[in-house]
Specification:
The chain is α+β, with helices and mostly antiparallel strands. The protein folds into two domains: about 110 residues, Jelly Rolls (Sandwich); about 80 residues, Tetratricopeptide repeat domain (Serine Threonine Protein Phosphatase 5, Tetratricopeptide repeat), CATH 1.25.40. Helices cover about 30% and strands about 25% of the residues. The chain is built from six helices and ten strands. The strands form two sheets. A six-stranded antiparallel beta sheet has the order 1-2-3-10-5-8. Strands 4-9-6-7 form a four-stranded antiparallel beta sheet, with no helix packed on it. The longest helix is centred in the last third of the chain and has 14 residues.
Length: about 210
Amino acid sequence: MAFRTLRIDELDPIEVAGLRWHPVRHALGVRGFGVNAYSAAAGEDVVEEHTEADDDGRGHQEMYVVLTGHARFDIDGEEVEAPAGTFVFLPDPSSRRHAVAREDGTTVLALGGEPGVPYEVSAWEWRFRAQPHIDAQEWEKGIALMQDGLAARPGDASLLYNLACFEANLGRLDDATAHLQGALDAEPENVREWAANDSDLDPLRERVDYPL
């Protein structure tokens, strides 16, 4: 197909992590760069507080485009007013950013990529897409999404961890334990933090092979 079109209001938003997320990249099949959108009512977060830097200080440059409404950004402690039509570019991945909607119906498009590095879909996209299935306790559908993510990102700790949680909810405890171990091997510090108070893992905690 030579082109694809999409309107934000054609995408059902997903409520996850305190945000209202519109999965633009997945809906359009974009593979060359990251692009998604977020919407919020006045006073709500429209960009969560975060940086894009990894432990080595590398990461995505990001550009935010305020499509509708009005957002107030806080970038490394400096406030930036961004009404509709404003571009906000953050070249340094380590910059801490956060934005709050100042008007109802505020929508922000976020685009990003790491200079000189081929784009890979971030693991969090599969987790965000799984949220409606988590809310509905549709564990099989959640498992299918995590397996799809692992086909693209083998060995990813967050995908393995969430797969283990979904399997534990279905009583597939051997599989869940094995995938939890895989996640722990990949990112031990993060997995220990995620698992500390996660009730999804309760069915595993009394097993002699529980890895935590």
